[in-house]
Amino acid sequence: MARRRRVWFPGAMYHVTSRGNRKSDIFLDDEDFRTYLNMLEEVRSVYLFHLHSYCLMTNHVHLLLETVDHPLTEIMKMLNFHYAIYFNKRHELVGHVFQDRYGARLIDDLHHFVVSSRYIHMNPVEASMVDSPEIYPWSSYRAFNSNSDPHVTTAKLLSNFPEPQIKNYQRFVLGLPPYGTEEEIELFV
User: Fold this and answer.
1) How confident is the model over 101-132, as pLDDT tens digits?
2) How far is CA 122 from CA 51, 104, 130, in A?
3) Residues 6+ away with beta carbon under 8 Å from 160
4) pTM value?
5) SS3 of residue 60 by DSSP
6) pLDDT digit string (tens) for 143-173?
7) Which residues, at least 6 apart from 65, have a Cβ–Cβ distance to it below 8 Å?
């Protein structure tokens, strides 16, 4: 059975996920994490895109990615292909690194955009890996705390929050007032 074609248009935004084959780890140490981020930049030099949020977990990745002139399929094919070759060679393995093809949910409104970013940044907390998202080193959350992160652009997400934008974004991610569930729906619908 043929796979369904992915929707793409210039400026399309996606919550992308890639999981290790059989839910196996795809990052075994810090060098693997750094290599993936370096490869992400290499791919961006070929296929321009904007990365709004990311989180690299041990067995999967989350990317909040906005395309510019190239379909997501080209971006992810290059990224996953090159990382799989690197991973298998470095760890003397063979076979598939990623389970199936990557997942991609089209972000079609502001609510989905900001809530996806929160979900991505809270992923290590929800997985009980850390108590707070700013502790996790392989996430873009720290870029939303006045720390620089060359991999992400924060302006689009922060523009949806009143001043002080960084503090209000952090409150939103952590679910602190005024960004509780009911208020969040009112603010981002």
Assistant:
1) 999 999 999 999 999 999 999 999 999 999 99
2) 17, 19, 10
3) 110, 113, 114, 188
4) 0.92
5) strand
6) 998 778 999 999 999 999 999 999 999 999 9
7) 13, 14, 16, 49, 50, 51, 52, 72, 75
